[in-house]
Amino acid sequence: MIFICGNKKYLGKTAVRIVRALERDTAEYSNKGGSIREFLVWSLERLVDRIPLRELDVSPNLADETIAFNYLCLLDNYEIGILHDTRSSLPAAIERRATNRN
Q1: CB 41 within 8 A of CB 30
Q2: What is the rounded distance in angstroms from the CA atom of residue 62 to the CA atom of residue 68?
Q3: Cross-strand pairs, 15
Q4: Are the beta carbons of 71 and 15 closer than 8 angstroms?
Q5: Are strands 2-5 and 82-84 parallel, antiparallel or unpaired?
Q6: 95 vs 54: CA distance, rounded Å
Q7: Residue 81 belongs to domain spanning
């Protein structure tokens, strides 16, 4: 998987690994290494002005990988980042999408 946010590209075999990398790079987040849910809740609260409230729920019933993947999909859907699943299509599509958004 590849996730592009701003000018930074994150690579990982799982969504959790990518979200953990985002967490490490987020200077404002002080609880690094805590649960994935804590980071996602914190991050989504900061996006309330860009994403409708109905989209911001982190279900306690879903596995970490599922909510991490859903988070990355949500960011992609609202054009906050670009998610690319390298298992299913060509990496060149990322560059086209990134170029089209700028």
Answers
A1: no
A2: 10
A3: none
A4: yes
A5: antiparallel
A6: 30
A7: 2-101
For the chain, state the CA radius of gyration. 13
| Nearest partner of 10 among 59, 83, 68, judged by Cα | 83
Mind listing the pLDDT tens digit for each residue in 28-86? 999 888 899 999 989 988 988 888 877 777 778 889 999 999 999 999 999 999 998 77
Q: In whole angstroms, what is the distance from residue 79 CA to residue 98 CA?
A: 10
Query: How many independent structural domains does the chain possess?
Result: 1
Predicted pLDDT at 51? 84
* CA atoms within a 13 Å half-sphere pointing along the CA-CB vector of 18: 28
| Distance (Å, whole) CA 53 – CA 33 | 26
d(CA 22, CA 43): 10
Q: Which of 15, 12, 11 is nearest to 75 (CA)?
A: 15
pTM of the model: 0.79
∠ Cα 39 49 10 (to 5°): 45
